[in-house]
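Hey, can you fold this one?
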Amino acid sequence: MKLVIGKPDDTELVLAEHAGGVWTPPATLSADLATFLKGCDPEELEMWVEEEED
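Sure. Predicted structure:
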């Protein structure tokens, strides 16, 4: 599974991946999130979990 945040322009960022019972963020999450959030309206953000397809 993946925890994802998205903007109305369909830009998405994976916040963490779930494997082996543990949520793990990417190593570059802090920098990626700072860039992703720059100039955005927080009211327009969406967050969801994507299930892996078999």
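The chain is about 15% helix and 40% strand. Let me know if you want another pass with a different chain boundary.
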